[in-house]
Amino acid sequence: MSFSSLALLVILWQPVVSLDLRKFTDLEISRHEIWKENAEELYHSFNFTLIDLIQSLDANNSQISAECGADLWKIQLAIYHMVTGQQDDFILDMMSLIDAGGKPGAGLLQFNLHFEGYKGECEAVEHYFHERERPLKGQFLKLELSYLDANRTGRCANPQQNFLWDMCLPESCSRRDLTIAFGSSKTSFTHLCNVHLLNERTGNWNYQSYITLFYMTFLTGLVVIASVLDVTLSSESKEVGGAYFISSFSIFQNVSELLAVKKNKAGQINQLHGIRFLSMCWIIMGHSMSTSMLLSANLKDALEYIKKWTVMIPALSYYAVDTFFFQSGFLLAFLWFKGYDRNPKAATSVSSWVMFYVHRFFRLSPAYYIVIAFYTFVYSQSDLLVKSPLFLGTPATTLSSCPTQWHYNLLYVNNLVGVKNACYLISWYLATDMQLYIAAPVLILPYILSKPIGFFVSLLLLIGGTVFNFITVYLHRLPPYNFDYGWQDPESDWSRVAYETWMYNPPWMRAQPYIIGFILGYFMHDKLRIRLNKFSVFLGWFLIPVCVFAVSYPIRDWVAQQPMALLPRALYSALARYAWSYMIGWIVFSCYYGYGGPVNRFLNWPGWVPLGKLSYCAYLVHLFVVVHYLLLFHHKMVFLGLTQTFLLFTLPIITATYLLAIFWSAIFEIPIAKVEAYCIKLALRRPRNHPVAPPEEPQPARNGSVRHPPNGSVIHPSRTGSVPARNGSIIHPQSPKHSIRLNDKPTSSLIEQDPRKSVSGFDENKASFIASAPDVSEEETEGSSIRF
What we know:
By secondary structure, the protein is mostly helical. 54% of the residues lie in helices and 6% in strands. It contains 33 helices and eleven strands. The strands form four sheets. Strands 1, 2, 3, 4 and 5 form a five-stranded mixed beta sheet that branches. Strands 6-7 form a two-stranded antiparallel ribbon. This is Acyl_transf_3 domain-containing protein. InterPro entries: Acyl_transf_3_dom, Nose-resist-to-fluoxetine_N, O2_lipid_transport_reg. GO terms for molecular function: acyltransferase activity, transferring groups other than amino-acyl groups.
């Protein structure tokens, strides 16, 4: 039996293993009709073996190389000897070669059409012949097959719908040899699309790869040296010159600061730590669910699972991103206007606005850039990924398009440019959030003029974005939500790439939760207490489940691949984020002002603090943790549902992600942040020349003690009455803590003569969940650090 039996399989189950399950969402297969109309041929198809496929090869084709033809003939001869009952070492080796190839297995009606082989067994085949020196070695490969349509053009133009078969054949055969051998045996039903050889897949290492490795090794070595010095040097020695600078790289200091659990203080927004960590876990759950469905051997069962209510848990994980947008806008307003209230002139100075952007760029980019460089030039070029049998046959651009797209990430425009072949898919968020931050003065400046003007501008932007969202969905017949496997309107004139480029990624489409968070942050920044009656508190919490219902129920049938009318789709897309933003906003508001009850106690758990601090680096690294975890599986698995996915994928990936994030942050994020803060404080030093004056009496410090000037020194009061103390600090006997602006937000710590002492460990607050804001006082918002 030759390719005719294989052709029937290809015809009956043509939507085969795909990198995108959306290709299967419109497919309905009736098992009864298949058995009724094709029972006899189907029976023969089940009995089609790998031996039949090998025997169909044209080993005598003159266009095939002599070595390949000879080895193929040897294999066919071994098959003949097996049938006749002969046994020797050669036949046993060839049995291993044949056994390593994939075979049609169970679950064909569930779209299990990737016939997987065993790479290790194949590569172990090596047989030597007496009559020649060259051995016959096995090489692992994958056939990519399709079927011919009425015009006999095949379907190879769409690799997403091709049929895959793992095989083990002689290493002497090139891609050209095997293409000729298989192609010449093609029937009128089948078509050979491609032959993927594992040996041909090699990483493209270049000078960029070595620069990346050198930089990462250099920083790691610096961390090792700093850690040794941190252990061996005394506390006094660490304060001297370069020793202090080097100690900033100590992994002991940085990890201890990351994992420190401090007692929550009044006036802090401690709840954001828990919200941030839980949202990050939700994102990982969504990604792990997608990948487990993607790699399932029973695709039809996976698609059937979409019709269950429990799928809404991972399906709604896209709202976790809106949670972070809300927090970014909230903390930007909450912290910026606190600084503005202290010193309006400094807050709106040119230097402050320059630092508003400069600090964010240098605070955010180093850890992110290293992730992009590592994934682009090192990890995606490694044999671990390139030669994985699971991804053999997957286009290189699907595994990583970063080698040609990485520069868009560095410019923070990858959410709008090159979306079709986007580099490091999850990084679109960082670009969108950066663009919202760049546009933040549009929100900030109107509030400086007056509260009514600021609120009016914010409301105008909200309404404009909502109307634009509604019109875009309605005119182009777009889906209500970015769930990949929901029902797709056949009359829509937008591709998936167009939807992501102009609907899902753009800052003007994602600004709703950001603006709502900004308004709430402005409202809360100067109000320490708000009194609410019991009915208001009850109503606020009662609306939480109402909002959950509002964001989940309207699209439930659409998620289950049922059609949804155009008007409800447009209304949901335009208004659903308001409901979600209310939920997050009410939790933050009620817990901050003491109306959170058990929710407040849960989110105030000190253990959330280190997990929240790690969320930024966890987001950065979790994608290649997911990819690496998949590489541990050489075969597809059976998809059973949410519980299996959570236990086998989500929990291990979350654990590995946060463990890696500890070291990524301690090596590539915190040290650079400390150096950046140190340089900023040095740049802000303004030495003054004072005339010599008679010694002054000792001045009282704020804690009631008396601080004496150093022996032989002279104290010169400043215009504010402040004097330098013995330890170099500036004492303010008649005023509260003096504030100095680093860019858009103040630090309320005592200004120290030695700027190095102003560089705290890593407890500085950030004005968005991706580490956008400069230092703020520990007393104010230490617990509200948002560093996704």
